[in-house]
């Protein structure tokens, strides 16, 4: 009578199965274990929520003769969905389906026991074939995860039973006579991958020859220094077995060789010079003070992990070439070191740095004011030139970015800088005429000539508020805007040639939050946009702290800062993009917008750089007015902000161009953008404490020429 090693799955809706269940219930020696409701509740709790038909799938009963027990389990689809759920997304659901088509054979079920169980546990195959002639002994329990109840039972049967108790639906075949000339063909027939863990050198060789003839890859783990062998006979059908380490040995002679005659070949195969000192020394003691060579459970487990990863790669068509590698834990522990503390967040206890200022007369004060203007990512995309009687600020093409399409964002920054210049000039009574042109390499530049009696009291009274303007990234609280605030903000925009659309209704803000969160996700998942976004960040101690955004000014708590170490990784974003996942990437933006009192959307007529510069001046005016009304202000720049055409959306992010077009359209409708108008910038308003750190400014963008009235910015490339 064959020893039982598979569970019999019984369906109560099948009359024959139901009759068998009645028989089993009538047997007082059979235990019934019913945890189905708890399993079903766990299935319901999965994310995303499982389909209704999965929840309605009828349960089954798995009968384990060797346990004399019957266990309630979910139906096959629900069981697999729940049991393998924690694999995601180290293994995706789609990848799991692909891997479930594999048939894998494992020969040698001492070391192979852990390997076979690991393959089953990870769902790396749809069928297993196990071969071993030997029976479990007490001395095997140092590395085989069986129990004293299994002693004397065939090793392949022990492994098969344990796998059946893990997954009653997984088909497992057992060859309890092991591998020999008679069973070899039966073992390799239909395999996608063979795992060889036999003790016999001649069986190792014969199995590889049979696998090579059928172009089946062979994997092997050796429990010393984590050796993993890969032989891709599916890709290299002429490859010598065992990497050619047996040399010109006639394989047919192996069965007739004595153990002593095999030793040179075994040592060549093991690369004796690379064995661990303890294993190598132990080989000398075999048949003296040791009965066989040593193996540890920890080494076996490491080997199983390596085999599992190799199977995953082969099964999914990922790169894995033939050869040998080592996963040497002992060596790795010898390399132990303190963790890298770079970019670890520590709340600042220093006094906030004051943004750089230029010493000197009125022109230097004007330049300092221009430097204080906001810009995307604090890139400060300008050059500022001073002469005896003028100040010129021009867009510097060297400081653009992908989102700064055709320098539109830079033009907004230039417009903000121009307003600051005018405010400072009015304060110092040197306000003069302004000309805006394109000259040299500057796509747009603005020049103001100072006068001796240039006054504008309305602008002058904004001077201190202009100097105090800051980017406030605290979430804040959504205090409603009163009528006086709405009027002040609207007047500020209109005074400087723009139009203001305020989103103040909670429903509108919630819709905007959804749109802006989705746009933020696209920014994370588009490699170039992600790289540029991360390049804007500055950690304490980083070079060039006078541009970019100090991470401490993001107002993150330590937990959020820790997550930033993940978000800044391009390989992580690449993986999320491949899965079309990452909806959580927009959560921070969503939360910030939802915490807002209002969104202030500044728009202008037209879409040339002059129009955007006009919008920039209006943005700065609205920003200053909002702070005067007691609100913290944070700029919001969705990826689609400066795109005017479908082609430009493609330039931003080809994979997400369609989604960006939809988001842009939704936002334009929400903000009632008029035909022919363009959005200069979006400002998020909330009641919040002052910013933790002010943005720094670079004085290197300022050129002075005290002896000439020629404008340096007109002389060509800067």
Spatial separation of the terminal alpha carbons: 90 Å
Could you say how many structural domains there are in total? 3
| Rg, nearest Å | 36 Å
Structural class: alpha/beta
Give the amount of beta strand, in percent.
15-25%
Q: What's the CATH C level of the largest domain?
A: Alpha Beta
What count of helical segments does DSSP give? 26
What helical percentage do the residues reach? 25-40%
* Mean pLDDT over the full residue set: 92
Q: How many strand units?
A: 22
User: How do the strands line up in the largest sheet?
Assistant: 7-6-5-8-9-10-11
Query: What is the 3D form?
Result: elongated
For this structure, the CATH topology of the largest domain is: NADH Oxidase
* CATH homologous superfamily designation of the largest domain: NADH Oxidase
The description of the largest β-sheet is:
7 strands, mixed
CATH architecture of the largest domain: 3-Layer(aba) Sandwich
- Low-pLDDT segments: 706-718
Fold topology:
Blueprint: E1 8-10, H1 15-26, E2 31-33, H2 36-44, H3 52-55, E3 60-64, E4 69-73, H4 76-83, H5 93-99, E5 103-107, H6 111-121, E6 127-131, H7 155-166, E7 172-175, H8 184-188, E8 193-196, H9 201-213, E9 218-222, E10 227-231, H10 259-270, H11 277-285, H12 297-316, E11 323-326, H13 329-334, H14 362-371, E12 382-386, E13 390-395, H15 408-427, E14 434-439, E15 442-449, H16 457-460, H17 463-468, H18 483-495, E16 499-503, H19 506-525, H20 527-535, E17 537-538, E18 549-550, H21 558-567, H22 570-579, H23 587-594, E19 598-605, H24 609-628, E20 632-636, H25 646-652, H26 657-670, E21 677-686, E22 702-704
């Amino acid at each position: 009578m064959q020893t039982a090693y598979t569970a019999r799955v019984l369906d109560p809706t099948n009359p024959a199965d139901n009759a068998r269940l009645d028989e089993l219930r009538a047997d007082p020696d059979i235990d019934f274990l019913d945890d189905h409701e708890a399993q079903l509740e766990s299935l319901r709790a999965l994310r995303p929520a499982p389909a209704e038909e999965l929840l309605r799938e009828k349960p089954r009963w798995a009968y384990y003769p060797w346990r004399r027990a019957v266990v309630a389990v979910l139906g096959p689809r629900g069981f697999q969905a729940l049991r393998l759920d924690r694999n995601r997304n180290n293994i995706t659901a789609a990848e799991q389906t692909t891997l479930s088509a594999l048939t894998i054979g494992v020969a040698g079920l001492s070391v192979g026991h852990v390997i076979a169980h690991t393959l089953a546990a990870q769902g790396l195959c749809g069928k297993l074939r196990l071969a071993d002639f030997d029976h479990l002994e007490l001395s095997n329990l140092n590395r085989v995860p069986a129990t004293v109840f299994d002693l004397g039972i065939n090793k392949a049967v022990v492994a098969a039973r344990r796998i059946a108790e893990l997954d009653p639906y997984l088909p497992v075949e057992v060859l309890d006579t092991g591998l020999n000339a008679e069973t070899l063909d039966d073992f390799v027939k239909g395999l996608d991958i063979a795992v060889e863990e036999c003790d016999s050198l001649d069986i190792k060789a014969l199995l590889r020859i049979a696998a090579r003839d059928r172009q089946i890859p062979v994997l092997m783990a050796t429990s010393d220094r984590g050796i993993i062998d890969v032989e891709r006979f599916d890709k290299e059908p002429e490859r010598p077995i065992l990497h050619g380490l047996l040399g010109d040995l006639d394989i047919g002679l192996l069965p007739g060789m004595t153990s002593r005659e095999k030793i040179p070949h075994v040592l060549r195969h093991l690369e004796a010079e690379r064995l661990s000192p303890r294993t190598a020394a132990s080989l000398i003691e075999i048949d003296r003070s040791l009965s066989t060579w040593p193996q540890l459970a920890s080494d076996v487990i490491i080997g199983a992990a390596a085999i599992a990863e190799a199977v995953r790669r082969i099964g999914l068509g990922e790169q894995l070439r033939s050869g040998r590698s080592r996963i040497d834990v002992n060596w790795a522990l010898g390399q132990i070191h303190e963790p890298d503390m770079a970019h670890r967040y520590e709340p600042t206890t220093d006094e906030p740095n004051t943004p750089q200022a230029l010493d000197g007369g009125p022109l230097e004060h004007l330049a300092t004011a221009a430097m204080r203007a906001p810009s995307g990512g604090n890139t400060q995309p300008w050059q500022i030139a001073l002469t005896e009687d003028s100040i010129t600020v021009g867009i510097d093409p060297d400081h653009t970015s992908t989102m700064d399409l055709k320098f539109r964002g830079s033009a907004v920054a230039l417009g903000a800088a121009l307003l600051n210049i005018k405010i400072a000039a009015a304060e110092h009574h040197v306000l003069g005429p302004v000309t805006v042109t394109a000259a040299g390499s500057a796509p747009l530049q603005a020049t103001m000539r100072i006068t001796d009696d240039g006054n504008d009291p309305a602008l002058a009274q904004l001077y201190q508020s202009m100097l105090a303007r800051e980017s406030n990234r605290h979430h804040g609280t959504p205090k409603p805007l009163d009528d006086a605030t709405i009027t002040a903000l609207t007047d500020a925009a209109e005074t400087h040639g723009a139009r203001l659309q305020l989103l103040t209704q909670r429903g509108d803000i919630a819709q905007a939050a959804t749109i802006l969160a989705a746009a933020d996700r696209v920014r994370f998942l588009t490699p170039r946009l992600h790289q540029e976004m991360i390049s804007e960040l500055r950690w304490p101690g980083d070079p060039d702290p006078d541009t970019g955004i100090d991470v401490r000014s993001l107002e993150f708590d330590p937990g959020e800062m820790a997550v930033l170490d993940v978000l800044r990784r391009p390989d992580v974003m690449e993986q999320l993009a491949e899965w079309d996942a990452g909806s959580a990437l927009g959560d921070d933006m969503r939360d910030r917008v939802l915490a807002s009192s209002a969104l202030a959307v500044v728009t202008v007529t037209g879409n040339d750089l002059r129009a955007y510069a006009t919008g920039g001046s209006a943005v700065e005016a609205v920003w200053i007015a909002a702070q005067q009304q007691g609100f913290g202000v944070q700029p919001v720049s969705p990826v689609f902000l400066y795109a005017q055409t479908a082609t430009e959306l493609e330039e931003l992010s080809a994979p997400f161009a369609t989604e960006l077009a939809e988001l842009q359209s939704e936002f334009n409708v929400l903000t009632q953008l008029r035909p022919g108008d363009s959005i200069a910038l979006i400002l998020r308003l909330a009641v919040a404490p002052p910013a933790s750190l002010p943005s720094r400014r670079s004085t290197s963008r300022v050129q002075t020429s005290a002896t000439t009235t020629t404008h340096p910015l007109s002389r060509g490339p800067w």
